Amino acid sequence: MVTAHHQGQETQQVVYRILDANLDRAREGLRIIEEWCRFGLNDASLAEACKHLRQELGRWHTAQMRAARDTLGDPGTGLTHPQEEQRADITSLLQANFCRLQEALRVLEEYGKLYNPNMGSAFKQMRYQVYTLESTLMGYQRHQLLGQSRLYLVTSPVDHFLETVEAALKGGLMLLQFREKTSDDLTHLERARKLQQLCHDYGALFIINDRVDLALAVGADGVHLGQQDMPIAVARQLLGSQRLIGRSTTNPQEMQGAIAEGADYIGVGPVYETPTKVGKAAAGLEYVRYASKNCPVPWFAIGGIDASNINDVIDAGGQRVAVVRALMQAEQPTLVTQYFISQLYRK
C-alpha cells in the first residue's frame, strides 16, 4: 500500500529532477550568451552580467537536486527538433538561447515555489534581468551591424522586386530599407514579411520607411523617418530601445536636430537631384563634406548616387551611401552591389 508520505517523497524527487534539469539548461544558455559577449563583442560589462547570473543559478543548484538526476531514465534526452540542428547567424543563435534561458527560468520560478518559499520571487527577478540583458544585447548586435554597413539599399517598386532585393543581398548588402508609398496595407504587410525573412536569411538589417506599426508587426530591425514624420522620442517609446531609428536630413540644422533627438543614424542628402525626391533641391557635396567632419553617428549620403558619381561622394568624405535606382533598376544587382561595396571599402 502506497502511503501519502511515500507519494510526497516521490513528488519531491520529481520536483528535484525538474529543478536540476532547468538549472542546467539555464546555465548552459547563459554560458553561450556570455561567450559571445566576451569574445564576440569584447564587452566586459555584459560578460560580467552573464557571469553574475550564472553564479546566482549555481547557488540554487543544491546537492539534493543533483542527487535526483536520472539521465538514463529521462525520456526527454533523445528529443530534438530540426531547427536546433542549424542556426542562420549569430543573432538567431543568441535569440534561441535567450528563449531557452527564459523558458527554463519560468519553470524554475513555478516549481521553485514547491521547494523554497523564496525561490519563486528570486527567479521572477532573474527573468526580468534576462529580459533587460536581451534588450541590451540585441540592440548592441543591431548597432554593430549598422556600423559595419557601408551600402544601404532603399527599395522602389520594380518588376521582379523580390528577386532584385535577393540579388543585392547575395552581393553582400547588409542593410535594406523597404520604402513603399502607394500600395494598400495588406500588400505592404505581405511584402514586408517576405523582405524581413529574406534579410533574416542573409543576416542583413531590415528597416521600414515611416511605418512604425508595420515594423512592429513584422519584427523589423527599425524604422526610417522623414522630417515630417513622428518625433523620434515617440517612435522610440513604441519600438523600444533595441531597434534602430534613422532620420532623413538635408542640412546641418536638421542633422543636429536628429542627433539631439537620438537618431541611431541619419541620411545626408539629396546629394544629387533625384526623381524619388521630386521638387527637392540637391544638398550637394558640400553637405557631405560637413557631415564627414561633424556627424558623430553613422550617416549615409543619399540621392542620385550611382556608379558614375560614387567616387566623387567618397572623395568628399562619404564612407557610407544609400542608393535606390542604381540597384533596383540594375541589370545585374549582385555585381553592382559588389562594385559599390568594393569602392566604399577602398578607403
Describe this structure as you would to a colleague:
This protein is an alpha/beta fold and 347 residues long. It folds into two domains: 1-142, Ferritin, CATH 1.20.1260; 149-345, TIM Barrel. The chain has helices spanning 4-40, 44-60, 63-67, 90-112, 119-148, 161-170, 185-202, 212-218, 232-239, 252-261, 284-294, 310-315, 325-328, 333-344; strands at residues 151-154, 175-178, 205-209, 222-225, 244-249, 265-268, 299-302, 321-323. The protein has an eight-stranded parallel β-barrel, surrounded by seven helices. Helix 9 links the parallel strand 4 (222-225) and strand 5 (244-249). Helix 1 (4-40) runs antiparallel to helix 4 (90-112), helix 6 (161-170) runs parallel beside helix 7 (185-202) and helix 7 packs across helix 8 (212-218). It is elongated and about 85 Å long. The mean pLDDT is 91. One of its GO terms (molecular function) is thiamine-phosphate diphosphorylase activity. Its EC number is 2.5.1.3. Residues 130-347 are annotated as: Thiamine-phosphate synthase. InterPro entries: Aldolase_TIM, ThiamineP_synth_sf, ThiamineP_synth_TenI, ThiD2, TMP_synthase, TMP_synthase_cyanobac_bac. Its cofactor is Mg(2+).
